[in-house]
Amino acid sequence: MSLAPGTPLQGRRGSYRLTALLGKGGMGEVWLADSPQGAVAIKIAANNPTAVEKLRFESRILRELRHEHIVAYFDEGEYRGLPFLAMEYVKGSNLERVVSAPLDEREAKAAAVEILLALDYIHSRNVIHRDVKPKNVLARGNNIYSCVLIDFGTAAYYNVAGIKEAVISPGGYTAPEQYSFRSSPQSDIWSVGALLFYLLTAKHPQEALPGYPNRPPPTPISVRRFNRDVSEELETVVRKAMAWNPSDRYLSAREMIEAIEGVTPAEVEEVPVLEVMGTSIRIDASALVFGRLTEGGRGRVNVRREGDVIYVGVEDPYNWISRRHFEIFRSGGRWYIRDLGSLNRTAVQTGGKLIEVWAGRGIESQPVELGERAVIYIAYGSSLNNQPYVVATFRCKGKT
Fold this sequence. Notes:
Low-confidence stretches: 158-163
CATH class of the largest domain: Mainly Alpha
Helix content: 10-25%
Strand order of the largest sheet: 1-2-3-4-6-5
Radius of gyration: 22 Å
Largest sheet: 6 strands, antiparallel
CATH architecture of the largest domain: Orthogonal Bundle
Mean pLDDT: 89
Number of strands: 22
CATH topology of the largest domain: Transferase(Phosphotransferase), domain 1
Distance between the termini: 63 Å
Order of helices and strands: EEEEHEEHHEEEEHHHEEEEEEEEEEEE
Number of helices: 6
C-alpha cells in the first residue's frame, strides 16, 4: 500500500489529505487526515478480499448509525481500487491505555453505561457489535465520562450480508458461544460485563475464568477477589452479565443499565413481554403471532391486535422472515412457542438449552415451553451454526 503523509483521497462527499499514520494491522491502516471540515480518521482496507469486504460492510453499517457514543460516519471512497472510510477523529486513547489502575465505581459505571447506551441503540436496529473490548472503546480527551464505541468491521447485520466468521478476541471479552459461531445481543452483554471487570480491576477477565472458553468456571467470576472496594451489588451485575448461558444474562442493554444504576424495573413482568429490535410488546392476550411486515406496515416493528391475538411484524427487505414465522401462546397456565412452518426456522435458548423449533416448511412444529427468561433466534437458515437474522427476548415473572 503506497500511502504516505500528503497522499490525497477523494471521497463521495469531500476530499482528504493524509497527515499521520495512526495504526495498521492485517485488515488495513488508519490515518489522520485533513479535510475542509477539519481532522478526520481514514480507514483504508488492506489489499485482500476479506479486508475489503469487512470495510465495505463497516461503511454500510456506520452510514445508518447516529449516536453520541458511536464513532460518526463522514464519507467513503476508493484509493487505487481499495475502499476507504472517513470517520470522526476521536482525540484520545482507548480504554486499555487510559485505564492503568482500577477505577472507582462511579467512573466504571459511567463508562459501562455509555457503551450500553450505544449497544441499546444498535440492537434496536438489529446490529450486533461482537467485539466490545477496551481497545475498541475510545475516551474523548482521555475522559472516562466520554466514551465512544469503534470498529464495526466484525459486526453482524442481516444474515445474508454479514461477515460469516467466528469473532474471537483475547482476554476473555468474547462470549463463549461466539466460539461456536453463535452471536446475539447477549453476546455483547457478556463483553460489557468483561469490560466492566477490566475497568474495576485493570485486569483482563480471562485471569478469573478457569476453563474459558471450553467450559464454565467452577464458580462465578469474582471482581472482589481483585478489588475489595467493589460493592457486592456491582459484582452481581458483572456476574449476571457474564453468565455462561446467554439466557441467564441481562436480556437487553437497557436491563443492564437499570441494574448498574440501581433502578428497580417496573412490574411489567407480571404480564409476559416480547422485546424485539428495541420494541417491548406486552403479551396481554392469549397468543402472539410474529412474522414479516407486508405492505401497509409502518416503521421497523408494527404491532396490532385482533381480538385476543397480537400480531407483530418487522421490516425484512430480504424476506428471510416468513409472513407467519412463529407463535407464542398460553396453555394450562404456561407459555409455549411453536414455529408456524417458516422457511428459515426458529430456535430458542431456554432452561439452559438451545432448542430448534421447526418441523419443516409449511408444517407447524411441536410446542416448546418457554422459561421465565428466553432468547428467541429468528431465521437460522439450515443450521444452528448460522447467525440469527433477528433476535428477540421473552420474559415473564412466573407461570401465569
